[in-house]
Hints:
2 copies of one chain form a homodimer.
Chain A lengths: L16 H16 L6 H8 L3 H7 L3 H25 L5 H18 L7 H9 L4 H27 L9 H22 L3 H14 L2
Amino acid sequence: MTSHPPIRRGPKPNPNLRSELVQMGLRVMHSGGYTATGVQSLVEGVGIPKGTFYRHFPSKEAFAGEVLNAYFERNKAALQALIDNAEIAPLTRLEMFFDKLIDAFRSIGFARGCLLGNFTAETADHSESIREHLSEQFNAWSAFFDRCILEAQKQGYISKQYSSSLLGRFLLNSWEGALLRMRVEKTDAAIIEFKEIIFKKLLL
Amino acid sequence: MTSHPPIRRGPKPNPNLRSELVQMGLRVMHSGGYTATGVQSLVEGVGIPKGTFYRHFPSKEAFAGEVLNAYFERNKAALQALIDNAEIAPLTRLEMFFDKLIDAFRSIGFARGCLLGNFTAETADHSESIREHLSEQFNAWSAFFDRCILEAQKQGYISKQYSSSLLGRFLLNSWEGALLRMRVEKTDAAIIEFKEIIFKKLLL
Lengths: 204, 204
């Protein structure tokens, strides 16, 4: 018997396919929503059969979990670098973080908002697996804020009346609500007001 | 010629059909979302052909506008009575309003959240008519809060550092965000924290 390489049928497998699907899902689901995004439209966008999608992801819900991970990963490094920057006063770091986001929303016409909030509105009552995933991610984001606030408390910039953890949660939740109002009004009023109240009235 | 009443074909028209459709849409869209609710499932639920739906509502978007009106109307009378009750101190009225909502969310397992927030997440970037409708409704809700806060300011309970209108907007927006976190966590933590921060730290 002579040995031959196995005969391949069809196009060469794409080693980046999984990541391409997730990045595409992130784009499409962030702008169009979870329910409105069909697996069919995703596989057509990448040019693969539906079966290939399901070889990578057992379900649309599981895929949504990967999309949420990618969303967090995309933002984490920059956020971490900013939050860790001990050369800047802790509350200034937080303000800079929101200023960057406000600029980003201005540049995209106050659309999309936060993927976590959007997925929550659509799926939290219907998918236990996405809900748990969202809960972890909300906690991870809050923890960034918590950390800056704790530093600010230790350095005496803010009162210790409330725990940094509670304030960090409140900050994120209020931001999520401000983003909804922003999307409805298509102006920066709600996110500017958020910053004003949080940094000039709450975090004292 | 003898006069005969015109011959009717098909079932007797239902004078409440329009309102029944809207009430059903409110239930179904509040629990399942805007995108996930098809006109087909609504007409099947009421037992009418699709054409009849479109004789009442030119589009699903126009229908969503009526659903938002019905949501506001359902809550308005009780809210107005509470907000107008001059026998109770203005901030206490506001607290009572949120306490009632918190109880209501406890009784339904922290599901659904606010229809305005949900519709915003799903439609604000995609339907100009729903977006405008939402913007008006957000303003109408904020105005209730604004009014209590203005009274509290006039009576010297809270500082006038920020306008009652800005505070009323911030209150509603923060509440919307707290509801998202509540739906993700399926506990009352976020809405209790909201009340704590708003009434013990912000509205002073």
